[in-house]
Amino acid sequence: MILKRIIEDKRKSLEELQLNIDDLKRRCETALPPKDFYSVLRREGISIIGEIKRASPSKGVIREDFPHVELAREYEGAVEAVSILTEEEHFKGSMKYLKDIAQEIDTPLLCKDFIFTREQIYLARANGASSILLIVRILEEELLKELLTCARSLGMEPLVETHTEGEVKKALEAGAMIVGINNRDLSNFTVDIRRSIELRRNIPEEVVVVAESGIKSRSHVALLEEAGIDAILVGETLMRSRDLVGTARELRGVTTKVKICGIKTPQEVEILNRCKPHYTGLVFAPSKRQVDRETSKELRERLHPSIKTVGVFVDEEYEEILNTARYCKLDVVQLHGREDTDLCRRLREVREFKVWKALPGETISDYIIENYSQVADYLLFDSITPGGGKTFHWERIKDVHGNIILAGGLAPYNVGEAVKKVRPSIVDVSSGVEGSEGKDYSKILRFIEEVRKYG
Ligand SMILES: O=P(O)(O)OC[C@@H](O)[C@@H](O)c1c[nH]c2ccccc12
């Protein structure tokens, strides 16, 4: 049986490695502190653990090109945690992948391996893991408990993997707080996602349940969500995708998109490339976030290709807008002044970019909304003083149907409520995700996280 082979090979390689527990303990003391794996899985809405997986015994090589750090960076804005296969012989993994990635991203990392000794746990921690995998099937009761305690002493809550009712019982008796249900039978590789749905029933609410393996589509995820699964572990589907961010979103079924407006510097572009909002905005109108064409073009070229660029104009001439849009290769022009419906129509007829028209959220009449919605791809509702960090009464627009964008005073603390009330297609934020140095990485991540919860 393959599992037996893997364990035997693992034993041999451990013997060769001759891990020294005192050395490892010392390395753990200087390692980056572990992140809270449990909490990111516990959050509202289904969480995704994206796996860095090069090959598997059942599928052979899954992904030929394997820039592991880049893949992890892609994952950073798309999933709540990253699982890294470190087993070498059968999964073509490596401890080096874990080590490199831990130095690059802030997301909690799970060390995915066949673990049956304390040394392996110390090794995982020393290389930056925030959690480890413990497979019930290969561990005696006492050993399972001992390894759980060992991991916790290093600040890691393990993912305890099961496949049968008996194994779930064993995991719970050992005190596991995160139980994985592997849909794949490790002895013959058959996969059935109903396995997670059935076994979920035997697990109490406060324990986090992770459905593992064979998750391929939004419809799978919807079924798992309905069954009360907290998180999914996805390897192959994401590894075979050329667009990790998009595929993760598709699995999640997210509908509300995010626009981060008013970027000015390459540093801010770097931050956006890590967080990967759907859109970013370059402000061409006079404002403290104004940028010129040259700078915009440069920023645009540095942006991750999945992020669309919106140019923001206020009462600008047709020719100027058109030339700027072409020069900077804008995906969208956003008209944020008193532009009339005729200008919107003419720009839209060019068909090289989308046209968004901004309107003040509170004071606008149904008649005006109706007229502009005929000539713009999206209507954007903002407070009367754009960029002023003020909200308006969302009540006014909550019944406006069609493609709307909500802006004005949004920030991580209120965007969840805004999304719930208004159900916009896109939320737009600028000052709400800024710190003293401009756009702030952790504020943007929190903002996106809030949108994901409710969107
Ligand atoms: O690639 P998939 O079908 O999405 O599966 C991911 C993950 O669940 C799988 O890699 C896995 C689950 N448990 C394991 C134990 C060891 C090695 C690998 C695994």
From TrEMBL:
UniProt keyword terms in alphabetical order: Amino-acid biosynthesis, Aromatic amino acid biosynthesis, Decarboxylase, Isomerase, Lyase, Multifunctional enzyme, Tryptophan biosynthesis
Pathway: Amino-acid biosynthesis; L-tryptophan biosynthesis; L-tryptophan from chorismate: step 4/5; Amino-acid biosynthesis; L-tryptophan biosynthesis; L-tryptophan from chorismate: step 3/5
Residue span(s) of domain N-(5'phosphoribosyl) anthranilate isomerase (PRAI): 258-449
Gene Ontology biological process terms, A to Z: L-tryptophan biosynthetic process
Catalytic activity, as annotated: N-(5-phospho-beta-D-ribosyl)anthranilate = 1-(2-carboxyphenylamino)-1-deoxy-D-ribulose 5-phosphate; 1-(2-carboxyphenylamino)-1-deoxy-D-ribulose 5-phosphate + H(+) = (1S,2R)-1-C-(indol-3-yl)glycerol 3-phosphate + CO2 + H2O
Domain Indole-3-glycerol phosphate synthase: 3-251
InterPro entries hit by this protein: Aldolase_TIM (IPR013785), Indole-3-glycerol_P_synth (IPR045186), Indole-3-glycerol_P_synth_dom (IPR013798), Indole-3-GlycerolPSynthase_CS (IPR001468), PRAI_dom (IPR001240), RibuloseP-bd_barrel (IPR011060)
Molecular function, one GO term: indole-3-glycerol-phosphate synthase activity
Catalytic activity, EC: 4.1.1.48, 5.3.1.24
Domain of life: Bacteria
Pfam families hit by this protein: IGPS, PRAI
SUPFAM superfamilies assigned: Ribulose-phoshate binding barrel
Family named by the database record: In the N-terminal section; belongs to the TrpC family. In the C-terminal section; belongs to the TrpF family.
Role summary: Bifunctional enzyme that catalyzes two sequential steps of tryptophan biosynthetic pathway. The first reaction is catalyzed by the isomerase, coded by the TrpF domain; the second reaction is catalyzed by the synthase, coded by the TrpC domain.
Name by which UniProt lists this protein: Multifunctional fusion protein
